[in-house]
Amino acid sequence: MSLARSFCVFALLAAMATDQSLASGFQLNEHGARAMAQGGAFAARASDLSAMYFNPAGLAYQKGLGAYVGGTMILPRTTFTSPAAKSTDMVNQTFVIPSVYLGYGMENGLSFGVGFYAPFGLGTEWPEGWDGRRTALKTDLQDLAINPTIAYKVSECFMVGVGVSYTWSTVKLSYNFPTYSSVTIPPPPLPVPATTDGKVALDAKGNAMSFNAGVIYKPMPSMSIGASYRHTTTIDYEGTATFTNTQALAPYFPGGTGKTTIKTPNQFFVGLSYDISKDLTVEADYQWIGWSTYDSLGVELTSGPVFPLTHQPLQASSKSGKNWKDTYMLRLGGEYRHNDLSFRLGFIYDASGQPNQTVEALLPDANRLEGTIGLGYKFAERWLVDIAYQMILFNDRTVTGPPPAGDLNKFPGTYKSTANLFGINIGFTL
Questions:
Q1: End-to-end CA distance of the chain
Q2: Which H or E run contains 390?
Q3: Shortest CA distance to 198 belongs to which of 278, 257, 267, 252?
Q4: DSSP 3-state assignment of 307?
Q5: What are the beta bridge partners of residue 424?
Q6: Taking Cα atoms as reference points, which of 314, 302, 49 lies closest to residue 178?
Q7: Which residues, given as ranges, of the chain have pLDDT below 50?
Q8: Are 397 and 365 in contact (CB under 8 A)?
Q9: pLDDT tens digits, residue range 265-321?
């Protein structure tokens, strides 16, 4: 392995930070417990304040002042098995994402609202010293968005809505890499590999604006058709890398500031709901996700000193191809109402947009099947509570090796993942 390949870690590390915000495994769709319990099949009805995420036209259902406040707890689990049958469990973590909505509906059909939620998030953490420590140790991504929204009820059968969003994004990650205890220039003697790894930590931030829009049409009282669109978000990241224990290569990795710009995917929801009876409603949704916006990634860095053995800086700007593919989700859900109780079920098929060649310990994503269940209870005239549970079963994802030349992320083996999610929201109207 050449020195240039071994130690272009800063550029690769910055690239991996953006992978965390773009990956299907880190896109969050659980933004309200009622919708979550029905498999997220909610674009055609969007009949609570979480409409600001699923379909802003649904905000027009709001009467008077209301709020819908809660969050989702996510417990992911992953085990990696190497080609030699050695297994490593990812460190267990628990994440809590908010879903907070406020809305006001006027008598003339005009409604206003603001939503606060996390469109992307989560993280991965592997134990210190594991075999893949040079691909990933710990990653933590937090995206928070505020989404002011306006909707209008044109008639009893047609509603429209539009919103703008502002997103704050932060990412922190760490990663080991090989280094040298001594380097004599020119050789011989050859550089002496160190017995301990170097480590780099990255702390980056970004922000961006975007918009979403939607319509709901009711051709008959028992049927609703909804469609919504969420535009791509262009995020400018700037971060600081800190290198430690680099030993003989310390002068060639001064660290400092790196910049990159990425585009999250645009998304399109379309759904059809039908009231089988006055107490039972079912809905089917199709969600298209435009991952092809992530076709390449450029990282801008201040170059470090020229390394005499390679006659080029080890710390330098870079650009790499990603070639992600557009993908989709299929959602099916139902709700049965009995007095003040509602019973909900749902099913999701989620196709990963991550190409085989970019599967890595930072993000072991895969196609998945998901089941959901939940309850709603109106416990007072103006108060209600919704709870939901979701189980995610990932297909096994196997990486074959050896990795391509220059690819420090790919690590051969098989990833087995599951996740359990618990959601709760409390709503009230005045």
A1: 67
A2: strand 383-394
A3: 252
A4: strand
A5: 71, 387
A6: 314
A7: 1-23, 25, 406, 408
A8: yes
A9: 889 999 999 999 999 999 999 999 988 877 766 777 778 888 887 888 887 777 766
Q: How far apart are CA 414 and CA 406, in angstroms?
A: 21
CA distances from 174 to 18, 128, 203, 425 (A): 14, 11, 9, 34
Cβ contacts of 133 within 8 Å, gap of 6 or more = 126, 175, 176, 197
Over residues 135-154, the pLDDT tens digits come to: 788 888 788 999 999 999 99
Is this prediction's pTM over 0.70?
Answer: yes
Of 284, 285, 274, 228, the C-alpha closest to 55 is 228
If we measure between CA atoms, which residue out of 41, 69, 39, 73 comes closest to residue 54? 41
Torsion of CA 17, 21, 22, 25, to 10 degrees: 110
Instruction: Give the number of C-alpha atoms closer than 13 A to the C-alpha of residue 1, restricted to the C-beta side.
Output: 16
For residue 225, give the DSSP letter.
Answer: E
DSSP 277: S
Cβ atoms of residues 269 and 231 within 8 Å? no
DSSP code per residue over 146-157: EEEEEEEEEETT
**How many CA atoms lie within 13 Å of 240's alpha carbon, on the beta-carbon side?**
2
- Cβ-contact 55, 226 below 8 angstroms: yes
Q: By the 8 A CB rule, do 33 and 70 touch?
A: yes
Integer Cα distance of 399 and 413 in angstroms: 5
Kind plus residue range of the DSSP H or E element containing 125:
strand 121-125
Over the stretch 176-226, which tens digit does the pLDDT of each residue have?
888 888 887 776 667 888 989 988 888 889 999 999 999 999 999 999 999
| CA distances in angstroms from 36 to 283, 303, 318, 370, 391, listed in the order given | 13, 47, 40, 11, 11
CATH class for the region spanning 3-429: mainly beta
3 state SS of 190: coil
